Amino acid sequence: MAEWKSICKLDDIPRLGSRIVRSMNGDIALFRTSSDEVFALRDRCPHKGGPLSQGLVHGNQVTCPLHGWRLRLDSGEAVAPDQGCSRRYPIRIESGTVFLDI
């Protein structure tokens, strides 16, 4: 069963940037694309645990700041030739408010 939590306003997440949500199971990074899509991934690169929230957002991907691994924001999957995945969390936006299913 979904447990939707109000997290922030869409405008609280910078375009082509991120915002961190603290949770009991570790940090979650919210990413906003140039087209105002929002995605949520566990804030750890599957390669060596780098903070994805500090990476560069481009298109629908984020590049890990430690070793340059690229991950798809819509799935959390690493872009080939890299392999691995960061957990993805469902997001919804209603009236400019971002909700996260924790």
UniProtKB/TrEMBL annotation:
The keyword Zinc does not apply. Signal peptide: none annotated. The keyword Chloroplast does not apply. Keywords: 2Fe-2S, Iron, Iron-sulfur, Metal-binding, Nitrate assimilation, Oxidoreductase. One of its GO terms (biological process) is nitrate assimilation. Its EC number is 1.7.1.4. Residues 5-100 form the Rieske domain. PROSITE patterns: RIESKE. GO terms for molecular function: 2 iron, 2 sulfur cluster binding; metal ion binding; nitrite reductase [NAD(P)H] activity. This is Assimilatory nitrite reductase [NAD(P)H] small subunit.
